[in-house]
Design brief:
Length: 148
């Protein structure tokens, strides 16, 4: 479920059929992350995760045609298995980092697994927010398959 608060905020809830500890670990364990990270059809040929508060992370997403997209950020909060907060910015064609947003993901134990809630903000406009929403929804389809 995607909730629209305003043009600058994206909130997505998804139920994942695994306990919070396992779902949390899928976000921070490189061996798990590469199995679901990125929209459907993407692969992760390169990644670096320094999973500690203040640690940097970076991934390369490659589509079926070989096009690559680079994204990076810094971990702000690591509260396993409850909450993960990190920054997010795409690398621009000139090598600079683009617009930075902050992502908070919470993991709540429920019957049948985990209610995972992603909150990403503050986007420059609704179009950018919506593009990220489509990407996350597709990525979460992959995450669901990881635990199917």
């Amino acid at each position: 479920m995607t909730t629209v608060i305003d043009d600058q905020v994206l909130v997505i809830e998804r139920t994942i059929a695994a306990p919070p500890e396992k779902v949390f670990d899928a976000w921070v364990n490189p061996e798990l992350l590469v199995q679901w990270w990125g929209p459907e059809g993407m692969s992760i040929p390169q990644h670096m995760l320094d999973v500690r508060e203040g640690g940097a992370w970076e991934t390369t997403m490659r589509n079926a045609e070989g096009g690559e997209h680079f994204v990076s950020g810094v971990y702000k909060t690591i509260d396993r298995p409850n909450r993960l907060v990190f920054t997010w910015a795409w690398r621009q064609p000139d090598g600079t980092r683009g617009e930075e947003t902050e992502i908070s993901v919470t993991f709540e134990a429920i019957d049948g697994g985990t209610k995972m809630t992603l909150d990403q903000r503050s986007f420059a406009d609704a179009s950018t927010r919506d593009n990220h929403g489509m990407g996350w929804q597709s990525s979460f389809n992959c995450l669901e398959k990881l635990f199917a």
